[in-house]
Amino acid sequence: MQADASPSGHHLVELKGISKRYGDLLANDRIDLAIEPGEIHALLGENGAGKSTLVKILYGVIEPTEGEILWEGRPVAIGSPVEARALGIGMVFQHFSLFDELTVAENIAVALSDDWSLATVRSRLGDISRAYGLALEPDRAVWTLSAGERQRIEIVRCLLQNPRLLILDEPTSVLTPQEAEHLFVTLDKLSADGCSILYISHKLEEVRRLCRRATILRAGRVVGTIDPRARSAREIAALMVGNEVGEVRSGTPHVPQGEMLRVADLTMAPGGLHGQALKHINLVASAGEIVGIAGVAGNGQSELFAALSGERLADRADAIAIAGKGCGTVGVDGRRRLGAAFVPEERLGHAAAPTHRLSENTLISHAAAEVSHSGFILVNAAKRLAGAIVKSFDVRTPEADPQARKLSGGNLQKFVIGREIIRRPRLLIVDQPTWGVDAGAARLIRQALVDLASEGSAVVVVSQDLDELFEVADRMAVIHQGELSALKPINEWTKEAVGLEMLGVSQSQGAAHAV
Amino acid sequence: MTTFEAILLTIVTASTPLLIAALGELVTERSGVLNLGVEGMMAMGAACSFAAAVTFDSTLLGVLAGILAGTFMAALFGLVVLGFAANQVGSGLALTILGLGLAGLIGAPFVGARRNPIAPLDIPVLSDLPVVGRLFFEQDLFVYGSILLTIAVAVYLNRTRVGLMLRSIGENHGSAHGLGLPVLRTRFLAILFGGACAGLAGAYLSLVYTRFWSPGMTAGRGWIALALVVFAAWRPGWALVGAYIFGAATVLQLHAQAAQFGVPSQALSAVPYLATILALLLLSIRRGRAIGAPGSLGLPFVPDR
C-alpha cells in the first residue's frame, strides 16, 4: 500500500516547478511535489502559505503561471475541474461547495457527468454509504445538515466517480473530535483500497495520525518533505512558521474577583431563516478570568455574541447584567458605557469598515471617548490613537494609516482586538479571536487576552478552536443547538468530554442550567 | 355570449403577457441574474412586432420580430452584466429606459395603424360546451402556448440535469464554478431566454391585446411581471396562479369603472399596482416558509483564474 511508485514506475501525479503570480504576489513559487499511488500525503503550512492555491491548480480551478503537471508520467494540462475529474482527481473543499437549498441527491448529481440520473445516484449513494460508513439521507435539504454530514456529501460525491486521487482541504476545521476520527477511519480505508489522498492541514496532530509523508509550504515555497512521525511537533512547527513559536505565558495566575457579566435564563428566537435560537442560557464571567465558549460552527455562537453585545436585544433587562447593571434591553453603545468591549467574528465589514482608514475605524468603538468632541471628529487624536494601537499590538501596515481592507487578516485582527483592549475594558467579549490568522498573530492575540484578564478584566472567548480554549480559558462551557452546557474549570474538561457536548451527548444534563 | 363569459375571456387575454414575461424573468433569476429591464424589453417587443407585422402584413413575422427584439435587448444586458460584471440593478434600470425610448422611436411611424384580430384556435365540439367551452377551447395559440411554456419551464427546472445546473449556479456561483459548471454561459442563455419571453409578451400586447401601437402601452406590465416572480417564490406553477390573479385585477377594475361605482377612475386604475405591492408585502411577512431567493441573485460573478 505504501509503494514508492506505481507498477509502471511512475508517480501517480507529479508537480514540477509550479508557480502562480497575482500581480506582485507570488502565491506559489516553483513548487515540486510527487504523490504515490495509495499514499496519504500531507500538505502542511500556515494560512497564506499557498496550499489552497496549489490544490486549486491541481484541480483545474486556477491556471498556473508556469510549471508542469505529470499524471502517471504523462504531461497533462488540467484546464477545468471537469478535466480533473476525468483524470480521476476528486476534491473536498474547505468551504463546502454545496448548494444549501438543494437536496443531498441533487447536490451529488449536479457534479457528476451526464449519464448519471437522480435514480442511479440514489442507489449508488446507498452502496457507498455502507462501504465507507458515510450515512446520508438523499432527500434532505443541505441547509438542515450538520457540518460533518455536509462533508460526507462532498466525500461521497468524489467517491462516486472512483477517484485515483482525493484532495481534502482542511477537512477537520469544522468537525468535532469524534467526527474527525470517523473521517480518519474512512481515509485509511480508502488508502488501503489504493486511492491516493492529498491531505491539507495546519494541524500537526492529525497529520501525524494519518500520513507518512508531508510536504511543508512556507510563503509559497516548499521548505521540506518529511516523515511527520519521525519529527517532533516543535520541529515541524518551526519549519512551517520559519521561526520558533513561543507558548502563551500565563503571567500572574488568574483569580476570579467580582462578577462582571451575568446572563440569566436568556432565550431568543433565531434571527434569520437558517439561524439558531438561544435556549435558557446561563453564564457568569468574573473579573480576572477568561471564560471559553466552545462549539461547532452554527450552534448559536453568533446569536450568543449578538445577544451579549447588544446587536440583538433581549426582552428583559435582567437577562444580561454587566457589572451588576441589568442591560438586556440596552444597545451596543449603552453596554460599552458600562465598561464592556466587543470584537465580532467578521473583522472586515463588521469589526472594521473596509474602505475607512484605521484612524477612522477607531471611531467605531471610541465615539464617546477621546476621538470626538461635540459631534466633530478629532482627526489628530484619532490618528494618534490608531498609531498607538498599531505600535503596541505589532500591526504591520503597508503605509501610514491605511484603509482597513489593505491589511492582511492577521494584522487587521490584531488591530480590532487592540482597539478594544487599549480602552482597558472591564469586560471583553470576543468571537473567534484567531480565526484564519497566522500562528505569530494568534500567539500575540492570545497573550493579549491572557494579560488583560491578569490585569483584572473579565474576558469571554467564543471559539471553534479547542486547542486555543484549552490554552487560554480558565473556565469553559460548550454550546450545542443554542443550549449552553455547564460552565466548568478548564482542568475538569477533557477533549473527549468537550466532543461529546459538541454532539449534544451530555452526561451532565441536570447540571446544564446550574451556574 | 354572456357578460360573465366576456369578462372571463378578457381576463385570459390580460393575464397571458404577464405570465409569459414572468416565466422568462423567473428562469433568468433562477440562474442568479436580476434583470430589471423587463419593461424595456417588453416595449421593444411590442414596437418591433407591430412594425414588422404592419410592414410585411404577417402576424408570424411580427411575432418573430418581437422575440428577436427582446433577445437583442437581453444580449446587450448580458454583455454588460456578465462580460463587464457591471451592477445588475443599475444596468437593468438603464435597459428599461433605453427600451422605452427606442420603442417610441421605432413605433412612431405606426401610431394610428391597426391590425385585424388573429383567429382563435377553435377546438370542435369541446368549444360548444356551455361557459367553459369558449373559455378553455377557443383561445388563441399564445394562450395555449403560455400554459405549455409554464409546464416546460417547471419540468426543465425540476426534472432535467441542465435545469439542476442552472439552479445550482443561481444558488451559489462560487461552488458551481469550483465544480466546473459553466456559470457565465448558462447565465447568458438564461438572460436571452428572459429577453425572448419579454419580447413575445410585448408582441402579444400589440398584436392581440390592443392591436395598435402607442408609446407607453406596456403600462408597467414589465414591473408587474417582476413582482410576480417574487410573488411566485421563483416557482413556475405559482407564476401561473399569480399572473391570472393580476390579470383579473386589471380587467375587473375596468368593469368597475364602467359600472360607475362612484370611485374615481384613477383610484381604480391603480388597483393592479396596489395588488402588486400588497402581494409583495404579504409575501415578505410569511417569508419564513416560502423558499427564498436564489442565493447568488444579483451578485456579479468574476472567476478567479
Automatic annotation (TrEMBL), chain A:
Domain ABC transporter, which positions?
13-244, 261-506
The cross-references to SUPFAM superfamilies, in alphabetical order and at most eight, read:
P-loop containing nucleoside triphosphate hydrolases (SSF52540)
UniProt-listed InterPro entries:
AAA+_ATPase, ABC_carbohydrate_import_ATPase, ABC_transporter-like_ATP-bd, ABC_transporter-like_CS, P-loop_NTPase
Q: Which CDD domains match?
A: ABC_Carb_Monos_I (cd03216), ABC_Carb_Monos_II (cd03215)
- What UniProt keywords are attached to this protein's entry? ATP-binding, Nucleotide-binding
- Domain of life, per the record? Bacteria
For this UniProt entry, the molecular function terms from Gene Ontology, in alphabetical order, are: ATP binding; ATP hydrolysis activity
| Claim: Nucleotide-binding is one of the keywords in the record | yes
Q: What family does the entry list?
A: Belongs to the ABC transporter superfamily.
Protein name, per record: Nucleoside ABC transporter ATP-binding protein
Species of the source? Microvirga subterranea
From TrEMBL, chain B:
List, alphabetically, the Pfam families matched. BPD_transp_2
Recorded GO molecular functions are: transmembrane transporter activity
> Does the entry feature the keyword Hydrolase, yes or no?
no
List the subcellular locations: Cell membrane
Keyword field = Cell membrane, Membrane, Transmembrane, Transmembrane helix
Membrane-protein topology: Multi-pass membrane protein
InterPro entries in alphabetical order: ABC_transp_permease
Q: Which GO terms describe its cellular component?
A: plasma membrane
The principal localisation class reads membrane
Write out the transmembrane intervals.
6-26, 33-54, 60-85, 92-111, 141-158, 188-206, 267-285
Name of protein: Nucleoside ABC transporter membrane protein
- Which organism is this protein's natural source? Microvirga subterranea
